[in-house]
Every structure is written in structure tokens, then in C-alpha cells.
Inverse folding.
């Protein structure tokens, strides 16, 4: 899709590997106990776990933070997350329960807590060269999308939205903490400019992806 950007699908969730001048950056880490799969994906692009320098988390849900503790320990990578989600990821506070389904799932599955090395606060900061953090609350309070300045822009949307058949649609709304806020976050993303978008769930959108975001945003209240 884009030079040096790879999607790894782990069951129903995606994570992304980005090759940069300063090592490999992971965006999210998939479901728990998938470290071996991630290591294989690294090998397939001729990288080792030791070359993972940074892990950018979009939000605290276990299908995105499932392997972060293990990967951080084994690679020595620095972990980034937003201030509002960081205490959940580090185990300091418990996640908000937004629906019965979330309560049920969280009883059976959770991610091992890990220390957050760098907390992202506010909006528009640059956690790493070339990456801009866009605070997109609503799915969780500290949800962050990341914009990579490469090939016209690559958006890592996390669960702010989802990809479906070349279009942009909603991520599971039952999991969201604040739907009005989520819709505002989609509008915020649509005000940026990017050529490609990848998601936590569903297929990537390529070619003027921001237009697909604008189309989706126009359907929201
Ligand atoms: Zn989520
Ligand atoms: Zn998810």
C-alpha cells in the first residue's frame, strides 16, 4: 500500500508495522497472546523484535493492547498512549464499562498492564518524527489517531471509524463511551488531509481516503 507500512491482521483486529529511519514503529499490538505472530510478521519484513523502537497505542481496549507488555519487555521499545487512557493501560484504574457486551468480554479477556513511557496530552503533538497524534475521543476518552506524513498522508484511525468495502463506516458503537464526542472526532479527522486510512477493524481505504471520511462524516448527526 504505502512503502514501509504493513498491516497485520490478527483475527478480527488489525495492527500496523511502520519502518522508519529510527527503527520499527508498531501502531497497536492486537489481541493477547499473539506475540509469536507479530514476531513472524517482523521476520517477513526482515526485521527483528529488537528493532521495534516505539509502540503507539490508539486506545486501551485489550484487542489493541494485548501484547504491549510482552513486546515492550522484549524489545525495549517506548510505549506511547494518551493521558486519559494511560492509567487504564498501566492498570492504575479500571476501564469504563459501556455495555453488557463489553462487561462480558472484559471478564474473559484483558491485556497485561504495562508502563507507559510517554504520555500524549492535548492534540496535534508529534510523538515521533513524521507522526502527528490527533486526539479523537468518544470510542474511549483517550483515543488517539495517528497521521503519518508519507505518500500524501497515512491515517491510523484505530477505532474512531472502521473500513468497509472501500468506504469508511462506524466502529462498534456499543463499545463507545460517548457517541456525540465520537462523531465530532470523525469530523475532526475529515478536516485533515490524507491519501490512505487504516483501521483497527476492517479494510484499508486507499486513494483520497479523506474524501471517504468526509462522506461518512456527512451521514452523522
Ligand atoms: Zn476499541
Ligand atoms: Zn478494537
Amino acid at each position: 500500500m504505502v512503502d514501509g507500512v504493513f498491516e497485520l491482521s490478527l483475527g478480527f483486529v488489525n495492527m500496523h508495522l511502520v519502518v522508519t529511519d529510527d527503527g520499527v514503529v508498531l501502531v497497536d499490538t492486537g489481541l493477547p497472546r499473539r506475540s509469536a505472530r507479530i514476531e513472524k510478521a517482523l521476520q517477513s519484513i526482515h526485521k527483528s523484535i529488537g528493532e521495534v523502537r516505539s509502540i503507539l497505542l490508539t486506545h486501551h481496549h485489550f484487542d489493541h493492547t494485548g501484547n504491549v507488555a510482552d513486546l515492550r519487555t522484549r524489545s525495549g521499545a517506548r510505549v506511547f498512549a494518551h493521558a486519559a487512557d494511560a492509567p487504564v493501560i498501566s492498570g492504575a484504574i479500571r476501564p469504563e464499562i459501556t455495555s453488557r457486551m463489553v462487561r462480558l468480554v472484559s471478564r474473559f479477556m484483558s491485556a497485561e498492564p504495562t508502563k507507559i513511557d510517554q504520555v500524549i496530552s492535548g492534540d496535534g503533538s508529534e510523538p515521533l518524527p513524521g507522526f502527528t497524534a490527533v486526539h479523537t475521543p468518544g470510542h474511549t476518552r483517550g483515543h488517539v489517531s495517528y497521521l503519518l506524513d508519507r505518500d500524501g498522508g497515512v491515517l491510523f484511525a484505530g477505532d474512531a471509524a472502521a473500513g468497509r468495502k472501500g468506504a469508511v463506516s462506524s466502529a462498534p458503537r456499543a463499545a463507545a463511551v460517548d457517541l456525540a464526542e465520537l462523531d465530532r472526532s470523525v469530523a475532526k479527522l475529515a478536516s485533515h488531509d490524507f491519501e490512505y486510512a487504516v483501521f483497527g477493524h476492517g479494510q484499508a481505504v486507499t486513494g483520497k481516503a479523506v474524501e471517504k471520511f468526509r462522506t461518512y462524516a456527512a451521514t452523522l448527526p
The chain has one domain: 5-217.
